[in-house]
Amino acid sequence: MELSEEELRLLEQMERALVEEDPKLASTLRGTSFQRAARRRVVLGAAILLVGIGLLIVAVLIDVSTILQTVVGVLGFVVMLGGAVLALTSARHPGHASPTVRASGKSGLGVVDGGRQHRPGRMSRQRSGSPFMERMEERWRRRRERGL
Predict the structure, then answer these.
(1) Would strands 107-108 and 100-101 be described as parallel, antiparallel, or unpaired?
(2) Whole-number Å distance between alpha carbons of 118 and 65
(3) Per-residue pLDDT tens for 18-46?
(4) Range scoring the smallest mean pLDDT among 22-26, 54-58, 113-117, 130-134
(5) Which residues, in sequence order, are CB contacts of 59 under 8 Å at separation 6+?
(6) Which pTM value belongs to this model?
(7) First to last CA, the chain
(8) Helices 32-61 and 66-92, interaxial angle, to 10°?
């Protein structure tokens, strides 16, 4: 459901008032700090991944006991795996609190369709669920007719 012009105007007035009253809260709600934190976690995860790869290379190159090589190799693998998981989960879900996009296309605190973000390639529930609802309504009508 799209917002009317009047609702959009009121929403923008409320946004301006919020920014004037509490700019830090507005920045948090806008999601800029969340995006920066997600970007930092991706970079940190990539750095940890590289350290893990370095440990694996060191394990192969060191010429000491087999036990020490195994320990360093396993440690390198675990560090590498942890860095990869950190980087990939941060890159995959950066927007748990990401900003919504207004109907006008501008990013900000705006709300579209009740605040739900649309994912491309997925059918909305209304479209996919409408035949189901029609069947349920038809069954309900038939039951009421039989009962009367």
Answers:
(1) antiparallel
(2) 56
(3) 888 887 777 767 766 677 788 889 999 99
(4) 113-117
(5) 69, 70, 72, 73, 76
(6) 0.45
(7) 37
(8) 160
